[in-house]
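Before the break, one more example. Copy the sequence into your notebook; we will annotate it together after we see the structure.
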Amino acid sequence: MRLVATIFEPKATRVVRCLLVNIGKGWTVREMANEANTSVGYTHAVLASLISMGYAKKDERNKVVLLDPEILLRRWAAFYQYDRNNSFLEYYTFEQQIDAFLIALKEKLKDEEYALTSLAGAWLVSPYVRPIDVHFYVKNREEGEHIAKILDIRPTAGVGNVRLVIPYDMGVFYGTRLIEGVKVVSNTQLFVDLWNYAARGEDAAARLREIMERDWGRILTGDPHVR
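Here is what the structure looks like once it is written out:
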C-alpha cells in the first residue's frame, strides 16, 4: 500500500484541508481527487496514510471520514510555519485605519483572486486581537504587483504593513468565502496560519478554535443548538 512521506507536504494538505473544511462528509478517492485537485493515485496514498495514522476511517459506505478534526488540525498547525512556508511581497499603505483598508479590498478587488489571512482575517471572523497590518494571499508575484497597483500601495525594503503572500501551494484558496464583502481564507487555513505567528497569533487562533469546535459540534451531532 502506497503512503506519503508526510501528510503535511504541500499537495497532501489539499486533502487534509478538504477534510477539515467539510467536517462530517464522507469521500471516495475519486471525489476527493476532484475536490482537492490532486491525482487519484496520490489522493489514495494521502487517504491511506491518514487512515493508517488513525486520523480517518472508512464508514459503512466505504467512504473516508475524518475521526477527530481537532487533533489533525492541531498537528498540522504545529508542523506548519507560516513565515517560512510562504513568500512575501512587502508593501506600505499610508492608510492607518485597518477597517478603511479592508473596505478598499472589498471595493477595489471584487474581480481579483486574493484571500485575507492572519490577524486581519481573524478580525473579520471574530474580532479579538486587533491587527496592525494586513496579510492576504495572491496567486503569484505578477498578480501581487497588479493588485498593489490597484490598491495604490508602495513597495518597501523592510517589513511592510501590507504583506502580499505568495502561497506554498494554491490549496490555500480552497474554502475562501466573503465576510463583509472581503475574501477571507477558510477557518482551517486561518487557524494554521495564525498558530505559530508572532504578535498574538496563538491567542487569535485559540479564539478561532472555539468557533470551529462549536461548528463541528453542530455538524457532528446534527444539533443546531450545540454550543
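The mean pLDDT is 92. Residues 63 and 192 are 26 Å apart (CA to CA). Try to locate both features in your own notes.
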